[in-house]
Every structure is written in structure tokens, then in C-alpha cells.
Design brief:
Blueprint lengths: L1 H23 L4 H14 L6 E5 L2 E6 L4 E6 L7 H15 L5 H14 L5 H20 L6 H22 L5 H20 L5 H9 L5 H12 L3 H29 L2
Antiparallel strand pairs: 1-2, 2-3
Length: 255
């Protein structure tokens, strides 16, 4: 009985670690729950109960005798992290690795899953800003195109460092949007032929919470109402912070 209890605790810890990593990487809740249940059942647990939310995951084993909560304080968009954890759970289900190897590999994923370097993220932000500007307005301008790339790149840089050194939600989006609006206004003063609307729409696309909104809808369609509504509200608040930042600057400058 003691050995069974210790094994159940080990399975519980590994399942919670997997769920924590997936939520941290931005996974939808149905995938988090499916991954945790797959690990628990293939470890020999017959009655696992899982409940996942964007801020924490709950797991109960042994008919409710063994329950634990894992709080998730930080959430980012890192699909590589989600993919690696999901693949490990499938390898465990296919008997390619045992429980101890799964534990070791999950800890390796937690510490060694690198994000894209900042310089590559900035290149992506510049490319996204300029190309989406063309997509939305169906027009190409030799002045607006590089301007949108510059504003999007520098605005993302501001967002990156504010988010890195502060823990106040939505502050980074608000200040980055204000910076983008101010920079766009200054570019317009230097080059009157530039369009403020086109540049700002393209640049702001780097911060629009598209994946968060998509996951919110997926959670709602899957029946995870608490998670879906919470993520939807979070996405709306981010959009309001972006719009508010632009509105404050434009109102102040009278643009």
C-alpha cells in the first residue's frame, strides 16, 4: 500500500508538471486535460480527475484520496513547449519511454525549451507589420511600408522590455501602443505623405492577441466555459489597452 501511495504521488507530480508547462506555453484547456489524463491512465491510474484553468490545474487520484493544485502564474505563447510536452505524453502512451524517463524529459523541457532570440522576434515584428498593412488596406506604398516595419519593430521592442521587467498586466501593451502612436505621429510630421492609419494598423498587429482569442473560442466550443470566458476577457482587455494607448496619444496631440 505504501509503495502504491508513493507511485500515485509520483504520477500526480508528473501530470501536474506536464499540465503546468502546457498552460504556461499557451495551450487550450482541452489539450491540457487530455495530456494529463493520458499520462495518468497509461501509468496505471484508473480514475484520474482533471480540471484545468488558465491560472491553475487540479488533479485528483485514488477516488479523491489524493488531490493537489498546481498554480500557474506566468503564461506566454510558446507552441514549441506545448508540442514537446504533448509528444512526450504520446511517447509514454506508446511505451517508448517509462515514467522515470518521462519525468526527466519533462524537467529538461521546462529548463531547455528556448524561445526565439530577440533579434529574430524583431525581424518577425517588422515583417508582420508591413505585410499585414498591405493585406488590410489592399494597397502598397513605398513610404508606408518601411514606416510600418520600423514602428512595429520598435514598438515590439518597447513591449518586450516592459513585459520583462514589470508584472502589471496590460501595462506593456498600453505603453507600447502609446509609443507606436507617438512614433507614427512624428514620422507623419517628417513625411507628410505617410498615412497614420495604415502605419498604426500594421504595427499594432504585432501585439493583437490573436492566439489568445482563438484559444478562448476553442475552449468555449469544447465546453470549458470558465477558461473560455476568462481568456476572452483577457484578450478583450489587451485590445482595449492597445486602443486606449493609441487614443490617449492621438487625443493629446489632436491628430
Amino acid at each position: 500500500m505504501f509503495e502504491d501511495k508513493e507511485r500515485l504521488k509520483e504520477v500526480q507530480r508528473i501530470c501536474l508538471l506536464a499540465g503546468h508547462l502546457m498552460i504556461e506555453g499557451g495551450s487550450e484547456m482541452s489539450r491540457v486535460e487530455d495530456t494529463m489524463l493520458r499520462i495518468a491512465r497509461n501509468a496505471g491510474v484508473t480514475d484520474p480527475q482533471v480540471f484545468a484553468t488558465p491560472t491553475g490545474v487540479f488533479l485528483t487520484l485514488d477516488s479523491g484520496q489524493l488531490s493537489q493544485i498546481e498554480q500557474v502564474r506566468e503564461r506566454n505563447i510558446n507552441l514549441e513547449l506545448v508540442d514537446r510536452v504533448n509528444n512526450l505524453s504520446r511517447q509514454f502512451a506508446n511505451k517508448e519511454i517509462d515514467l522515470q524517463e518521462l519525468d526527466e524529459k519533462l524537467h529538461d523541457v521546462a529548463t531547455n525549451t528556448a524561445a526565439f532570440p530577440l533579434w529574430l522576434q524583431l525581424i518577425g515584428a517588422a515583417s508582420l507589420s508591413s505585410t499585414l498593412m498591405i493585406l488590410f488596406f489592399d494597397s502598397y506604398d513605398w513610404l508606408d511600408f518601411p514606416a510600418a516595419a520600423i514602428v512595429g519593430c520598435l514598438g515590439f521592442l518597447v513591449y518586450y522590455f516592459i513585459q520583462k521587467y514589470t508584472r502589471i498586466r496590460f501595462l506593456s501593451e498600453l505603453i507600447a501602443a502609446m509609443f507606436m502612436a507617438l512614433l507614427t505621429y512624428l514620422i507623419r510630421l517628417l513625411v507628410p505623405e505617410c498615412s497614420i492609419d495604415k502605419i498604426l494598423v500594421g504595427a499594432l498587429m504585432t501585439l493583437v492577441p490573436g492566439l489568445a482569442l482563438t484559444n478562448a473560442l476553442r475552449d468555449l466550443f469544447a465546453g470549458d466555459l470558465m477558461s473560455g470566458i476568462g481568456r476572452f476577457v483577457e484578450a478583450v482587455m489587451t485590445a482595449l489597452a492597445l486602443g486606449g494607448g493609441v487614443g490617449i496619444i492621438m487625443r493629446f496631440l489632436g491628430a
